[in-house]
C-alpha cells in the first residue's frame, strides 16, 4: 500500500532514466547521461529537464521528435558521439527554447538545414567530417554558430580537391559559393535538355 502511494505521489515527469543521473542545478533539473555507452537517446527523459548531457556515448542518429516532450530544455550536449544522421524534425518541439546545442566531434557529413535553421540555440558543429556543400553553407550563414568553434568546421570532402582540409569559413571568405556552383550545374543540365528538345 505504501509503495502504491509512493508511485502516485511521484510526479510522472520526475522519473530518471536508469542509465542517467538526475540532479538539480539552481532549481533547474539536469539530466546527466555522459559516457554511459548509450546507442540511442533514452526514451524516458523527465519532461522538466532543462539541461541534458548525452556526450561521450555511441549514439549514431537523432530521429524526428527525439526531444519533442522536453519543452523546458535549454542546453543539449550531444558532442563526442558517433552521430551520422540527423532527421529534418530532430529538434522539433525544443527549437524555440534551446539556448545551446553541441554537436561537435561526431561523424556528421551533412545535415538537413531544416533541422537547424529553426533553432535559436548557439550551435557547435566543429570536428565533424563535413562535406562542404550548399546546405552547409546556408547553415553557416543563417544559423547562430558559436564563434569559438566556427574555425574548426573543416571541409573533409568537397566538390573540388583544393577545398579539402580547409576551414569552411576560409573557403567562403575566398569567394567560393557552393550554392551558385550547384545552380550553374542545374543551368547547364537544363540547357543540355533544351538543346536536346530543339534537336
Write structural notes for this entry.
There is one protein chain. The protein is α/β, with parallel strands linked by helices. The chain has a single domain (21-194), classed as Ribonuclease Inhibitor (Leucine-rich repeat, LRR (right-handed beta-alpha superhelix), Alpha-Beta Horseshoe), CATH 3.80.10. The protein has helices at 2-9, 113-117, 134-142, 168-173, 178-198, and strands at 21-25, 28-32, 49-53, 61-62, 75-77, 85-86, 100-102, 122-124, 130-131, 155-157. Strand 7, helix 2 and strand 8 form a beta-alpha-beta unit. The chain is elongated, with a radius of gyration of 21 Å.
Which helices and strands appear, and what pairs or packs with what?
Layout: H1 2-9, E1 21-25, E2 28-32, E3 49-53, E4 61-62, E5 75-77, E6 85-86, E7 100-102, H2 113-117, E8 122-124, E9 130-131, H3 134-142, E10 155-157, H4 168-173, H5 178-198
Parallel strand pairs: 2-3, 3-5, 4-6, 5-7, 7-8, 9-10
Antiparallel strand pairs: 1-2
Amino acid at each position: 500500500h505504501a509503495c502504491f502511494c509512493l508511485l502516485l505521489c511521484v510526479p510522472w515527469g520526475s522519473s530518471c532514466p536508469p542509465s542517467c543521473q538526475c540532479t538539480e542545478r539552481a532549481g533547474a533539473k539536469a539530466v546527466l547521461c555522459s559516457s554511459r555507452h548509450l546507442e540511442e537517446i533514452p526514451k524516458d527523459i523527465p519532461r522538466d529537464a532543462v539541461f541534458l548531457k548525452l556526450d561521450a556515448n555511441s549514439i549514431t542518429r537523432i530521429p524526428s521528435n527525439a526531444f519533442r516532450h522536453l519543452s523546458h530544455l535549454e542546453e543539449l550536449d550531444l558532442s563526442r558521439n558517433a552521430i551520422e544522421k540527423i532527421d529534418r524534425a530532430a529538434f522539433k518541439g525544443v527549437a524555440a527554447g534551446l539556448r545551446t546545442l553541441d554537436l561537435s566531434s561526431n561523424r556528421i557529413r551533412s545535415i538537413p538545414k531544416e533541422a537547424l535553421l529553426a533553432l535559436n540555440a548557439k550551435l557547435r558543429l566543429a570536428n565533424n567530417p563535413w562535406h562542404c556543400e550548399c546546405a552547409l553553407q546556408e547553415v553557416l550563414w543563417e544559423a547562430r554558430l558559436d564563434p569559438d568553434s566556427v574555425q574548426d568546421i573543416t571541409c573533409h570532402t568537397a566538390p573540388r580537391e583544393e577545398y579539402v582540409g580547409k576551414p569552411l569559413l576560409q573557403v567562403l571568405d575566398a569567394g567560393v559559393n557552393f550554392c551558385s556552383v550547384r545552380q550553374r550545374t542545374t543551368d547547364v543540365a537544363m540547357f543540355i535538355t533544351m538543346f536536346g528538345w530543339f534537336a
